[in-house]
Amino acid sequence: MEKNNPEEFKVPFSPLLIGRYKMIKKIGKGSYGSVYKVEDIKDRKTATTPDSPKKYFAVKKMKLPANRLKIQGIDFTTLREINILQEIKHENIIPLVDVFHINRSTFMVMELMKSDLSKLMFSRTITLTIPHIKCIMLQIFYGLKELHKNWIIHRDLTPNNLLISEDGVLKFSDFGLSRFFASNNRPMTQNVVTLHYRAPEILFGANYYGPQIDIFSAGCILGGLLLRGTLFCGRNDIDQMSQIFKIMGTPSEETWEGVTNLPHYVEFEETPPQSFRILFPGIDEDLANLLEGLLVLDPNKRLTVEQCINHPFFNKSPDSCDPDELPMDDIS
Amino acid sequence: MPHSHNEHRNYQESVYKTNPEYLKLNHPSLSPRMVSLVLHWVQQCCEVFYLKRETYYLASCYFHLYLSKVENLKPKHLQLIATSCLLIAFKIEELGLLSCNSLVEVNNGQCSKTDIVVMEKHISKTLCWKLYPKTLNNILGQATRQWDDFVNGNLRVFISL
Fold this sequence. Notes:
The structure holds two protein chains of two kinds. Chain A is 30% helix and 16% strand. Chain A is of the alpha+beta class. Chain A folds into two domains: 106 residues, Phosphorylase Kinase, domain 1, CATH 3.30.200.20; 216 residues, Transferase(Phosphotransferase) domain 1 (Transferase(Phosphotransferase), domain 1). In chain A, the strands form three sheets. Chain A has a six-stranded antiparallel beta sheet with strand order 1-2-3-4-6-5. A three-stranded antiparallel beta sheet of chain A has the order 7-9-10. Chain A has a two-stranded antiparallel sheet with strand order 8-11. Chain A is globular. By secondary structure, chain B is mainly α. In chain B, 70% of the residues lie in helices and 0% in strands. Chain B contains eight helices and no strands. In chain B, helix 3 crosses helix 5, helix 4 crosses helix 5 and helix 5 packs across helix 7. Chain B is globular and about 65 Å long. The chains are: A alpha+beta, B mainly alpha. Chains A and B meet through helix 2 of A and helix 5, helix 7 and helix 8 of B.
């Protein structure tokens, strides 16, 4: 039946993966590898009516590590990512359907999502109202709550990694940088989180940090949603820090205990903190308060996920809209 | 708020459950002595490569979990399984790369690189990719840290009196 469709033949990929998933097209690419849209054939064969709805999935093909001449087995970042996705099942975390290998590549089958948050954020045609923003932020916090509850830090929270399904449900993806922070006191790497969403303690080279870095990224996303652009858009580490301090004020021992002892601490020209109500004219006090709480420089004073969810901003009218009311249709 | 440590441990115990009787029930051709020999060999490997203590404990966890999930293994497979477990544990726990070549070397060439890699895939698939068990080493470390906290908090006052 599918053979009659001439378009199917133009797809240059091998048509079937492990006899079950039919490649349709490439939908994304990143440092980790590439993502393809596939159709699940297995269920179609067993279905009694041939007209049953087609099942689509996204397949993430993990890139082989750089030294591909040596056989090293499964790449360790892949191993850790699959692991973490296995541990947690939640509405706001992308579900892993299947894992398989072909030759030396690892493939991860995940739910197919319509879009990601960055498209919504940077679109010029979509207007985002306060209920929309509440809905998006609440979903981010619910996902983060589940992660932090299971002792996992995401470490790469950006709008690109927040996928949105057709009904407007936000899902976290790309756990390649995530790690458990439960009970080992191992030093952590500073080479995490996309620069524009990186928390100040990582920029200062702290060896130990906690789930607060995800909260800072969430704060950057909230700022981005209001600004409809990137809140802190630095060109390099130093520029990024100066951009953050321009708005949040320079840190000192009084505002952030122990900041001068951090490995990469640099002194900046002193600037006083600015009020978010001046930066974003027209936002109400609670929203400014939440934004400030998310972006506090001292990680110990930053809000926790729990505090964010219970923040007065979310309890006030206008109420958060339902996920399916998000303006999804306008995304091209 | 994260789960408390105890809650997390209970959850982990329910997920990573080994069958203590696996030798009798699943593998009639294996003896406890063989298993202990193989694990001792893994210990020696860790010494040769200067690996962390945690890596060995992780590897032994995978080994027991895998053996309680499969059936009828032959004694000659044990070393290959242990090698692959060590490789996975290395990837989960340590930084850097442990080359398969050196693993083949410590194996005296009993198995090839491809053997190790194929076994690695099979093990991770059998364990359903759940590779973060709480090891003995981990629990002990946590207990000693709690003791240290207790000493620093309470006993110091007591001693100074």
